[in-house]
Design goal:
Chain lengths: 158, 763
C-alpha cells in the first residue's frame, strides 16, 4: 500500500512517520507511536474514549486522518503528567474516586482539561455539557463531576 | 470503626494512578513480536445449516497465516453446567443467530484479514427462525437445538406455601403483565483477546470475570491440560455480568495461534461487542400479588418468560435470580414462581443484576398501586414487609445480617420523601424501590477462593490471590484487607492477582462474591502470615505471641506501647532464622451445597445478603413524553465498608445501571430477519452526563458474621432497587402504571393518551 510522509507534533515531540494516507490519528497514536492510553471504543465518534487535544481543544482522534493534523499540537493522556507528578485533573480524579474501570478516563480527563484551560471556574452544568461526549458506564458520572468541580471551585448540586 | 486502622478508611483506590496516566494496559493495548491480527466471518442468517465452507481462495491471499472453521475444533460442546452443554465455541453444523461465528482469519495486518473474509465461500441452507420467546414456545416453532424440544432452555419452578388459597383470602390482589426488550452491557472496552499458543501451552489475555473460569473450558475445547492454559492478568474495562463466561473470541484466537504458531490478537468492533458477546434477557412477567388489610404481603405468584437467545449460557442462574432476590427483599410465606427461559434465534443472554427488570420493577410498581388502594404510604408498606436477621425465606434460606429497614428510612429521609410524596407539582413524581442481592452462592468444587501472603525482606508483603478486578476495585479491596490484618499501611502491600499461571483458584466475580470470598481468603492468609511473624517477634521480645498485636508497621506488646519491633525487622529476623514467612488461607461459601438451581431450589442459597433502597424524583414532559431525572438517592447495607469511597462508587454505578439505563432508556430493536437494528452508540440510548443528576449514596452497616471485617457486597442491591424507584416515580407523576420497560418517551405518550381516553369515557 502507498505510504506518505507525515510529521506530527505529539506531546511536544516531532514525529516523522511514513503511513498509509487513510490512517486515522487514533490508529497512528496507538499503533505507530505506541501511546495506548488513547482508547478505541467505537471508531465512529460516539463514545469519546479516543479524545485527544488538538491545539488545546478536545477532539475525537478516530474521526481525523493523521495526515490532516500536521502542523497542529496534539496532546494525549501520556503528555499530561510532569514526570511522576500528576496533572491537577488527573490528581483530582484519583482523589475523588472519578476512576473505576478506567477505560473512559483518559478521554474524560482530556475533555475536562480542555474545558478548564479555557474556563477555569465552570459551573456544574457547563462541566456536564463538556463531558457529555465521553460515555462512562461505571461512575454514574457523579464522582467525575465532583472531581472536576473540586478544581473549578464552584458548588456541586446535591 | 476506630478499632481498625486501614479498613473503613476512605482512600483513593490503589489501582487509580495507572488508569489516569494511560499506562494501564487493556487487552487490545498489548502486542507481542510476530503478532498476527484476526477477523471473524459471521452469519448473515438468524438460523441456517452450514453446508460447506471453502477457504481455499482466502488461504492464497498473501499475508494470510491461518484460517479456522468449526472443522478445526474438536467435537466439544461447552456449557456452564453439565446439563446445559449446547454451544460449540465455533459452530460446525449450523448457526443460530445473525452474527454468530462461522470462520476466522489471522493475517499480518487487519486489512488483509478483513479482505480474506470476503474470499471465504460459505454455503448456507437457511432455516425457519424465531425471534420471540413466546412464539418459540408454541407448537410447531422452529427447533433451535435438536435435543431441546419446545425450545425450552431452562425451567425453574418453586411453589412454597399455599399460594392459591392465600390469594383467594387476600384483601386485595394486584395482577399485571409487564414486558421489556433486551438490554446491552455496553462495557466501554470492546472485547479483545491476545493469545499465544506455543509448545508449552496457551497464554491468553482477555477481559474476564474469573480467570480460572476461562481456563477450564478452554482446556476442554483445546484438548490440553488446564495447567497449560494460562489466563493472564490484564486491566479490564468493565464486566457487569456480561463477561462471566468463556467467549468464542478466546477460543478462536487460541485456535488461530495454535495453527499459525504465532501470537494472535483479536479485537472486537463496537458492533461485535453489542451483538456477539452477551446481551441481557428480554422478558415478560405475569405477576399476582396479594395483601391483607394491613398491607402485609400474603402471596406472590409470578410467571416469567425469558428470551435466552441461541444458547443456555448461565440460564439456570439467570432464570432464578429474580425469585431469589424477591423472596429476600420482602417477607411473605406463599410464593409460586415459574420461569421459562426459551431459546430464540438471537444472541445469547447472560447474567445481569436486575434481569428481568419486569420482575422486580413490576413487583415494585404493584406494591405502590396496592399501597394507594389501601391508603397507605408506600414507605410504610415496605417497612411492614421488610425482612430481618434470622428470617427464613419460602425456599429455606436464613437471612443473616440485615439492615433493610434502615436503608428504607435513611433513603426516604435524605430524599425528602415525607415532604414531597403527594405534594409535588403536576408532572413531577417521587418513587421508591427496594432490592436485595446475595453474596457467594454454591459453585461446587469451584466455589472457593484461595490466597497466599508472603513477607519480603524489606518488610513489605505480597498478596497472591485469584480475585479478578473488572474495574470495581477488587485489587484495592484485598490490599486494604491484607494491610489491616498484617498491621501495615496499604502502600506496603503489593498484589498479584487473576493469573492462572501463578494465583490460587478463585470463584470469580460472580454472585457479588469477591469481597466475602476472595477478601475472606486474603484475610485468612494474612492472619496465617501474621501469626508466623508474631511467633518470631515473641521470641525476640520474650513474650507470649497471644499478647502481641501488629499495627502501624510495628508489633507491640499489648498494654505496653513502648515495647515494640518494626515489622521489617521481624521479617528479616525470621529469614535469618531460616524461616520464610508464607501465609495461606481459603474461603468457601456457607451455603447449602445440595441446593441446585433446577432440581433442588431449596436450602441456604448464599453466604451473605445485602439490602438497599432507592428513591428517585422525576419530571415528565407531557408534550414530548421525556422523563427527566431530578434526584436519585440510594442507601445500601454493605455490612461494613472496607473503603467507603469504593462502596459509594458501586452504589452510584448501580444507580446508573438501573435508573436511566434499565428503566428509562435502553433497549434493542430487531429487523424481521433477526438483525440487531441499534448495535451502536448513536441508536442505542446510553445515558450521558447530561441525562443524570448527581447520585447521592448512603452507606448503611450491619456487621456481617461471614464477610471479612463484617463486609458484604458493595452496592449491587441498588441495581435492583433503582428500577422500582424510577418506575414508581413515573407512575407517581402521571398516575398510570407503566407496563413496559424502559419507559421511553413513546411509552409515556401512549400511557397519557390511554389515560385521557379512559377519563373521557368516564365523563
Amino acid at each position: 500500500m502507498n505510504k506518505i510522509p507525515v510529521s506530527l507534533n505529539v506531546n511536544g515531540r516531532e514525529e516523522n512517520l511514513e503511513i498509509p494516507p487513510h490512517k486515522t490519528l487514533l490508529e497512528v497514536i496507538r499503533d505507530d507511536l505506541n501511546l495506548t492510553g488513547t482508547k478505541c471504543g467505537c471508531e465512529d465518534g460516539t463514545c469519546g474514549t479516543c479524545t485527544v487535544l488538538l491545539d488545546g481543544a478536545a477532539v475525537r482522534s478516530c474521526l481525523l486522518l493523521a495526515a490532516e493534523v500536521q502542523g497542529h499540537e496534539i496532546v494525549t493522556i501520556e503528555g499530561l503528567a510532569d514526570g511522576e507528578r500528576l496533572h491537577p485533573v488527573q490528581q483530582a480524579i484519583v482523589n475523588h474516586g472519578g476512576v473505576q474501570c478506567g477505560f473512559c478516563t483518559p478521554g474524560m480527563i482530556l475533555s475536562a482539561k480542555a474545558l478548564l484551560d479555557k474556563q477555569p471556574s465552570p459551573t456544574e452544568s457547563v462541566v456536564r455539557q463538556a463531558i457529555s461526549g465521553n460515555l462512562c458506564r461505571c461512575t454514574g458520572y457523579t464522582k467525575i463531576v465532583e472531581s472536576i468541580m473540586a478544581l473549578s471551585g464552584q458548588p456541586v448540586s446535591s | 470503626m476506630s478499632e481498625y486502622s486501614v479498613v473503613g478508611k476512605r482512600i483513593p483506590r490503589t489501582d487509580s494512578v495507572p488508569r489516569v496516566t494511560g499506562e494501564a494496559k487493556y487487552s487490545a493495548d498489548l502486542s507481542l513480536p510476530g503478532m498476527l491480527y484476526a477477523k471473524v466471518l459471521r452469519s448473515p442468517y438468524a438460523h441456517a445449516k452450514i453446508l460447506n465452507i471453502d477457504t481455499s481462495k482466502a488461504e492464497r491471499l498473501p499475508g494470510v497465516r491461518a484460517i479456522i472453521t468449526g472443522k478445526d475444533a474438536i467435537p466439544y460442546k461447552w456449557g456452564v453446567f453439565a446439563y446445559t452443554r449446547d454451544m460449540q465455541l465455533l459452530p460446525s453444523d449450523k448457526v443460530r443467530y445473525f452474527g454468530e461465528e462461522v470462520a476466522a482469519v489471522a493475517a499480518i495486518d487487519e486489512d488483509i484479514a478483513r479482505e480474506a473474509l470476503d474470499l471465504i465461500q460459505v454455503d448456507f441452507e437457511p432455516l425457519p427462525w424465531v425471534l420471540d420467546a413466546e412464539e418459540a414456545l408454541l407448537e410447531g416453532a422452529p427447533q433451535i437445538h435438536q435435543d431441546k424440544p419446545g425450545n425450552i432452555s431452562v425451567r425453574i419452578f418453586v411453589d412454597e406455601g399455599e399460594v392459591d388459597r392465600a390469594l383467594e383470602e387476600s384483601y386485595l390482589v394486584q395482577e399485571d403483565r409487564f414486558s421489556s426488550p433486551e438490554e446491552n452491557y455496553c462495557q466501554l472496552e470492546p472485547y479483545a483477546v491476545l493469545a499465544n499458543f506455543d509448545s508449552t501451552g496457551l497464554d491468553i489475555w482477555c477481559p474476564n470475570a474469573g480467570p480460572h473460569m476461562k481456563a477450564r473450558p478452554l482446556s476442554n475445547a483445546l484438548g490440553i491440560p488446564t495447567s497449560e492454559v494460562r489466563v493472564r492478568k490484564i486491566t479490564i474495562g468493565g464486566h457487569g455480568g456480561g463477561r462471566s463466561e468463556v467467549s468464542p473470541a478466546d477460543f478462536m484466537a487460541a485456535l488461530l495461534s495454535r495453527k499459525a504458531r504465532r501470537p494472535v490478537k483479536l479485537v472486537y468492533t463496537r458492533e461485535e461487542n453489542f451483538n456477539c458477546v452477551r446481551q441481557v434477557h428480554a422478558a415478560t412477567t405475569h405477576s399476582r400479588v396479594g395483601v391483607d388489610r394491613e398491607g402485609r404481603i400474603t402471596a406472590v405468584d409470578m410467571k416469567v418468560i425469558m428470551d435466552g437467545g441461541a444458547y443456555a449460557s448461565t440460564g439456570p442462574i439467570a432464570a432464578s435470580v429474580a425469585y431469589i432476590m424477591i423472596e429476600e427483599a420482602y417477607k411473605f410465606a406463599n410464593f409460586r414462581y415459574e420461569a421459562i427461559r426459551a431459546y430464540t434465534n438471537k444472541p445469547p443472554r447472560g447474567m445481569y443484576p436486575h434481569h428481568p427488570r419486569t420482575a422486580y420493577g413490576g413487583l415494585e410498581l404493584q406494591l405502590d398501586v396496592l399501597a394507594e388502594k389501601l391508603g397507605m404510604d408506600p414507605l410504610e408498606l415496605r417497612i411492614k414487609n421488610a425482612v430481618y436477621e434470622g428470617y427464613v425465606t419460602p425456599t429455606k434460606t436464613v437471612i443473616t445480617s440485615c439492615a433493610e429497614v434502615e436503608t428504607m428510612i435513611k433513603a426516604a429521609e435524605k430524599a425528602g420523601w415525607k415532604e414531597k410524596r403527594g405534594a409535588l407539582p403536576p408532572g413531577r413524581g417521587i418513587g421508591m424501590g427496594v432490592g436485595s442481592v446475595i453474596s457467594g452462592f454454591p459453585m461446587g468444587i469451584r466455589g472457593g477462593s484461595g490466597a497466599f501472603v508472603r513477607f519480603n525482606e524489606d518488610g513489605d508483603a505480597t498478596v497472591i490471590s485469584g480475585v479478578v478486578d473488572n474495574g470495581q476495585g477488587n485489587d484495592s479491596m484485598i490490599a486494604q484487607i491484607a494491610a489491616e490484618e498484617l498491621g501495615l499501611s496499604v502502600d506496603k502491600i503489593k498484589v498479584v492477582t487473576a493469573d492462572t499461571s501463578m494465583t490460587p483458584a478463585d470463584q470469580g466475580a460472580y454472585s457479588q462474591a469477591s469481597t466475602v470470598m476472595s477478601g475472606g481468603a486474603v484475610k485468612a492468609a494474612a492472619a496465617d502470615a501474621k501469626n508466623q511473624l508474631l511467633q518470631v517477634a515473641a521470641e525476640m521480645l520474650e513474650a507470649n505471641p497471644k499478647d502481641l498485636v501488629a499495627r502501624d508497621g510495628r508489633i507491640y506488646a499489648k498494654g505496653s506501647p513502648d515495647r515494640f519491633l518494626d515489622i521489617a525487622k521481624v521479617a528479616r529476623t525470621a529469614l535469618s532464622r531460616d524461616h520464610a514467612i508464607l501465609g495461606r488461607g481459603d474461603r468457601w461459601p456457607s451455603a447449602d451445597a445440595k441446593r441446585e438451581w433446577v432440581k433442588n431450589p431449596r436450602g441456604q442459597v448464599a453466604s451473605a445478603f445485602s439490602f438497599g433502597t432507592a428513591v428517585a424524583e422525576v419530571e415528565v414532559d407531557r408534550e414530548t413524553g421525556r422523563v427527566k431525572l431530578l434526584n436519585m438517592v440510594a442507601a445500601h447495607d454493605c455490612g461494613y465498608p472496607i473503603n467507603p469511597l469504593a462502596v459509594e462508587q458501586q452504589i452510584q454505578r448501580s444507580a446508573l445501571e438501573a435508573g436511566p439505563e434499565g428503566t428509562l432508556l435502553e433497549k434493542h430493536a430487531w429487523t424481521a430477519n433477526g438483525q440487531n437494528l441499534n448495535a451502536n452508540f448513536l441508536d442505542y440510548w446510553f445515558p450521558l452526563s447530561t441525562d443524570v443528576p448527581n447520585i447521592d449514596p448512603i452507606i448503611v452497616t450491619s456487621n456481617d458474621p461471614f464477610g471479612p471485617f463484617g463486609a458484604k457486597e458493595g452496592g449491587l442491591s441498588i441495581s435492583v432497587a433503582m428500577v422500582g424507584a424510577v418506575a414508581n416515580a413515573v407512575q407517581n407523576a402521571i398516575g398510570v402504571t407503566p407496563k413496559q420497560l424502559p419507559i421511553t418517551p413513546e411509552v409515556v405518550l401512549r400511557l397519557l393518551e390511554e389515560k385521557e381516553k379512559q377519563s373521557e369515557a368516564k365523563s
